[in-house]
Amino acid sequence: MRNPTTITAGALSDKITVTPAGMSWTLRGPQIWVIKHIVWLLFILYNLCMNKISSTKARQNWADTVEKARDEPIVITEHGRETVVVMDAALAKLALQVLEDAYDVEQATKALEEFERSGISFTLEEVAAELGIELG
């Protein structure tokens, strides 16, 4: 069974933790306000606006299900449990991009914190030499 996506963020917090399928990203920094509001908007849309239908009904009315999914995400359930979401491709791409951007921010933040903690840095020439790249 897959782990559900959980989002933890306080209203006054400067930190968000997003945990999709067992991975965890903690977001900080000046972009946190925008990211926090996008995440909360997606969370609200997910919980309040999505229609839920059984897999049997979705199969029987597939064309109608797809048509409705163009307007808003549709949660398909099996035996009362949410299993998949059918949604507009543009919305899915946007949601994935937001998660990817959040992950990139987390990785950059970790790298910056590591640099600030260790103080170790390398010049471009040192990195190029290590990788066997000849600079022109």
In a few lines, what is going on in this structure?
This protein is an alpha+beta fold and 136 residues long. It has helices at 32-49, 55-60, 62-71, 89-118, 124-131; strands at 6-9, 16-19, 25-27, 51-54, 74-78, 81-86.
Summarize the structure in words:
By secondary structure, the chain is of the alpha+beta class. Helix content is 53%, strand content 19%. The protein has helices at 32-49, 55-60, 62-71, 89-118, 124-131; strands at 6-9, 16-19, 25-27, 51-54, 74-78, 81-86. The model is unreliable at 1-7 (pLDDT under 50).
- The rounded Rg comes to 21 Å
Secondary-structure element pattern, one letter each? EEEHEHHEEHH
End-to-end distance = 53 Å
Biggest beta sheet summary = 3 strands, antiparallel
Basic shape: elongated
Q: Order of strands in the sheet with the most strands?
A: 1-2-3
H/I helix tally? 5
How many strand segments? 6
Query: How big a fraction of the residues is strand?
Result: 15-25%
- Average pLDDT metric: 78
Helix and strand content put the structural class at alpha+beta
- Uncertain segments are 1-7
The proportion of residues forming helix, as a percent range, comes to 40-55%
